Recover the amino acids of this structure.
């Protein structure tokens, strides 16, 4: 049982890695440097540091959704399903961006509630049911009706996990860079500085994709 679960987690990690780990490392090594001031992003920084990783992570989550919900399907077919569903999910996310931002500005709790009702299981709905963005949001709303509190708690725990893993991975990357620099291995240190956060991002993406797929399966019952 434990060996099977470890194998499944490894499989999900390696399927998601091309869209999370590789992208994070490539952007970190080849992209623009991060801004020196908080939220002071230039156009290229916004594109390469935020937009591109977010788009890639959305695709990775869909791959995980497809594999978890269809465990006997070949990885290439899961990837094909994820690629087909990707534009639909992006349209749903774009449609929800302004309402979620307004809800977050008003108060954090409404934003968490709205995300749980409309966005949390959107990926599995696209993979398994419909390719119409509006139908996806309606179906997500219907599926999550009556589960507000559970979903909000689930989202809050997930947010803490994502932030915690991200911080730990970032600290580990910085520490590895310092150690490598002291050893005279500047290039190795620079690589480790982006590699470890990329590994952390892959784990959180896999976790988010698996959680949404399992929640979707539970809501169908």
């Amino acid at each position: 049982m434990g060996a099977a679960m470890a194998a499944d987690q490894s499989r999900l990690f390696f399927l998601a890695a091309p869209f999370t780990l590789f992208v994070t490392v490539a952007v970190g090594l080849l992209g623009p440097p991060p801004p020196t001031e908080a939220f002071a992003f230039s156009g290229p920084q916004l594109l390469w540091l935020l937009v591109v990783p977010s788009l890639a992570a959305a695709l990775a989550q869909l791959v995980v959704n497809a594999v978890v919900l269809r465990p006997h399907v070949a990885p290439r077919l899961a990837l094909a399903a994820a690629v087909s569903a990707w534009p639909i999910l992006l349209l749903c996310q774009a449609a929800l961006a302004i309402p979620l931002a307004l809800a977050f500005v008003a108060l954090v709790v409404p934003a968490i509630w709205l995300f749980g009702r409309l966005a949390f299981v959107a990926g599995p709905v696209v993979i398994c049911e419909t390719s119409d963005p509006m139908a996806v949001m309606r179906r997500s709303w219907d599926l999550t009706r009556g589960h507000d509190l559970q979903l909000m708690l689930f989202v809050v725990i997930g947010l803490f996990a994502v932030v915690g893993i991200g911080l730990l991975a970032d600290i580990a990357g910085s520490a590895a860079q310092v150690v490598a620099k002291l050893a005279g291995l500047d290039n190795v240190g620079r690589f480790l500085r982006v590699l470890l956060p990329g590994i952390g991002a892959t784990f959180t993406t896999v976790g988010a994709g698996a959680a949404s797929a399992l929640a979707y399966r539970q809501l169908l019952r």
Observations:
- The mean pLDDT is 90.
- Residues 2-219 form one domain.
